[in-house]
Amino acid sequence: MAARSGCLPCGGDESGLTPVSRPIPKGVTPATQVICGLCQHSALRELGRLPALPSASVLLCEACQFAVLDPLPGGEELAAYYASDYAKEFGATDPYNPKFIAAKRSKAINRMQFLNEQFLGIGGGLLEVGCAEGEFIGLACEKGFECVGIEPDAVLAARAVSSSGCHVAAAMFPCPLPIDTFDVVASFHVIEHVPDPCAFLRTCASYLHPGGVLYIATPDLENTKYEVTHHVFRPCHLTYFSAAALRCAMLASGCREAVAIRTDVCG
Ligand SMILES: [Zn+2]
After folding, report:
1. Which domains can be identified in the chain, with CATH numbers?
2. I need a surface site. Which of 102, 206, 234, 235 has the fewest CB within 10 A?
3. For the whole prediction, is pTM greater than 0.85?
4. CA dist., res. 208 & res. 174, Å (int)
5. Cα 245 to averaged position of ligand 1 atoms, centre (Å)
């Protein structure tokens, strides 16, 4: 990938950075010397301390509306969070509860509908990175895709295999898969959990054949109104994107075109 010069959002040089598109809330203080990992802009602002992890600040890049935890939680901190608060919130859900199944199915239908609306006639091979219980790949199979899933949680991966009938690798990402293989690589609400989102996107894209579609969903930073008390701000979410920032990240990661659509915060 060619080296970037200047700001991705506005395409200008350092002196021509796009002004802040949204006023920074009162009381926000400038951060220390930190550079945006997405557009290299140096004027990051501290939105506040993470309520569930006061040792970490949320830093917002004024130029591209990308935010990151600083410092990133360590492996032990994250492991403790995933084993306690995260497990209580997400891991304790009864996977056989009809309401839970209906909600997962509804979300998968919406995501598939969106894919079909954006890319008429799309089909072929589909990889989902972080497929959880396999609802989306199961639906994609019904629609004629040949699906593969990756899911690091062995219990969820086993459920995905039994519910979808697809091949699911119970593995951390990235895991060995043939590159240039898939027509669609999808990943829903995973990118915010990884420390290097551009590396994540590049690896996801490497599994696509030329012209394939990288389909990413992540919470919309703008829907939080930049208030760190919003439930989206949590220790396992290492980075946060506005629609424009996600578009920048995708272009910076080698995608030829990027369309970013805002939906609800968890769409
Ligand atoms: Zn930036």
Report:
1. 95-217 (3.40.50.150)
2. 102
3. no
4. 14
5. 7
